[in-house]
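Entry details:
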Amino acid sequence: MFLLLVAYTLLCGASAKIQSCISERGSNISHMYNLEKFVTMPASTCYARVHFDLDSRRVFLVELYGLEDDEDPGCRISTKGYNGMINATCICNAYDNCNSPHFLHVSLVQLMEMQGKAKQASAIVNAIRKQLQIPINRDFVRQSRSGLYVIAAFICFLLLSSFAHVASIGPMFFIKKAKSQ
């Protein structure tokens, strides 16, 4: 029985590792950053690709997908013809859903520090940062703080009322009652 268990474990460990990759496509990277539920697909290698237009200096397409390939993890930048378009592709296979927009951004920042493609990576990273600077809903922050203030005021009110209650009945225990005859 033990040998059967060991053989099963070795066979399962030798099989190809199937992981899930995010499968999304869109032009608004800030919307993709805020998504909580992604569409996923089983694949062995996850890809994150960004298409950048040099004329308008903006990211016009972000693709997150998975394939059954055995490519090495890393990033590469390529240009497409004379159209003024730069493609950056980042590959990962470390863990499930590793091809997130955050992974793409971090990988491009790391690629920006390398010498060969620093200018193209810098242009793409600046465009991503510009798209992510969409105004934040400040009311949500204010609501969360006001809730904190309401809770703090309620706790203070409870403490004061319990202190007043104890202070009002406290003297009854220390006053001597007159003896009744």
Summary: The longest strand covers residues 58-67. Confidence is low (pLDDT under 50) at residues 2-8, 10-16, 136-141. Residues 13 and 142 are 51 Å apart (CA to CA). The two ends are 92 Å apart (CA to CA).
